[in-house]
Here is the input.
Amino acid sequence: MTRQIAQVAVDNATIHFDKCYSYRIPPPMQGRVWPGSLVLVPFGRGDKPRMAVVLAVQEETQENASPRLKSLWDAAPEQARLTPDLMELVRFLKERTFCTWFEAVRAVIPYGAQYRCTLENGRPVMQNCLNRTTERVYTLAGELPAKPKPGPRQLAAVEALRQGPLTARQLEERGISKPTLDTLCRKGVLQEGRQDRMLDLFASIPFDPQPITLAGEQQHALEALLPDLEDDRPHAALLHGVTGSGKTMVFLKLIERTLELGRKALVLVPEISLTPQMIHRLKSTFGSRLAVQHSALNNTERLLQWRMIQQGNADIVVGTRSAIFAPLQNLGLIILDEEQEHTYQSESAPRYDAHDVAKKRAAIENALLVFASATPRTETYHAAANGKYKLVTLKQRYGERPLPKVDFIDMRAELAAGNPREVSARMAQELQKNLDNGEQSILLLNRRGYHTVGMCTVCGHVLNCPNCSVPLVYHKPQQALMCHHCGHTVQPLPQTCPECGGKLRYSGFGTQRVEEELAELLPQARVLRMDQDSTGQKNAHEKMLAEFGRHDYDILLGTQMVAKGLDFEKVTLVGVLGIDSLLFGQGFRAYENVFSLVTQVIGRGGRAELPGRALIQTTVPGHPVLQLAAAQDYEAFYREEIAFRKFGLYPPFCAFCVAGFVGAQEGAVALAAHRFGTLLAERAARRPHIPMRLLGPAPMNISMLNGKYRYKLTIKCRNDAAFRALLRETLEAYAQEKLPQKASVVLDFNSDGDL
Here is the structure.
């Protein structure tokens, strides 16, 4: 006689005891537990209830049975299990990002589809983290009797249901009430059931497919990609096109062909602000079998959309980074739009990059993966230029429209001329010209708030956050100082220095300050400010962009969220403010980020019949990165950047791993980081075939965050199985010396120099 044993990984495990534990599957649960099942187990000496995920199920004979094995307490229904392809992604995250099993599980399935422990009649059982919202659904079960004579509503209900089941809401829209339906159920004419409530988040968008007409260059791009879409092997391609070249129209044709092949498509965008326009295009072209996954949905909406995908009711999924885990079956096409954006990288465990997960999914599903950008990552373009990906280019704007004309405004000259404002005189004149012509403008300033620093005029003391090593930022509407990292707030606004009692001077500028300047300079202008402070409410991005698209506003002022992917036909002027702080930022991707941001925001102008122009305010107008961005010359920038990367040994010529150490005592954190480096170096010395350079330890750029001190080691390496095994061995040694009690350690392979 055989019994079944489940190998499970438990929740709330540290990385040092995150391993497989064996549990007996009791007879009532046999046939209900598979790899990927979520289960409840007794754990530890006190048999405390823990959620767990089943990694494997094995057979155990009577002779080999272990008498000490505990039994599972409960198991989730079969429909809640992770499918084999999702379990493959869980293993991938565990292997590549050094997260725990359950951190990977939480990344793959949304909160509402997860389970927790609760007590029922005194015993621990599993319960949904979110009770699924269901609705009544009616099915025709028999014919309507002639007597007593049926009423018009009963006849209407039966006729409506002859076409198939309908929900109570759908029948109510036809004037058929619940009492009528209850009567028909009692007669046996209808059968009532329950189903997950269907949620069409974008019912207001009409299904209005228009013929997609491609220009010659777009058609060539499509023809280059179609063979890779239509064969049954994994492929990757880079679609590199200048801003306004019509990459989205190529996407639509690829999706159209994917659906014709009976397969499904996944479209990723980097920002929530970009989803409304993409959703509108996809919904109007392909109809209602479209699902959405992003963090702005509430838990119920996200769960219902996830169930819609899981049950096979969606052909296309669009969303931000987390949508890469959407449970689509028979996936044929994955698109990463604006692939250069850092928001595709997770900043909390598991610290994954959507690029890597997309490549894994494409390999699992034999799908075509398309990276798309006007300013691709240096690593992506290098892979395409060297034949690892297919390189497909679009060099002309759609309709042969010209790129915007770009001018520089030297802010040193503005100051010398007596203009202390952040909006230059030339910028104000051009904005006024647009107002007079009934045209719209976009202004980019990647800094929110009003003033960015408060400093004492006597002793020079800067008002810093008490929990983080960063200055507090003045927010005028709240009349408060706020920390943009931990949220610490100081009210009322200090007027005197806490150190010497001297007068405080607030300087620097953010979006709130520029909004106020615009109101003074252009009182008739309708200004829409779009930043993290103004988009906190639900659907704020969608409402604001819709208002700007209707020309309810003349000027859109915002942070990076206004720089990418937006397409408004009346925008003819783009202005860039405060770019110098990014130009001289830290991290090996600083120039790449500036080039991308400036190129992308310039590309928002002149996308329809009206020609576009752009103005860049800077103190270094001759800087080569700004000059190349103004010329939209990506190839020249790439040649400069790849030479710098090779000389300095940065990706793509090595992998770049940052080991971060966080703890309450600065000295203990520094010592723990040093000891980790020593342990790693000792083990690497025994494996000379593993290439590695170790730098540090050193304080991070923000050396204290939320009251915790932060140090880092920088490791230049080859991210392969041998190096990851070396890191795991070092982590084990670090744990054996009980160093995690002094400083927790985090490994990130996607950082450009800090965490």
In short: The mean pLDDT is 89.
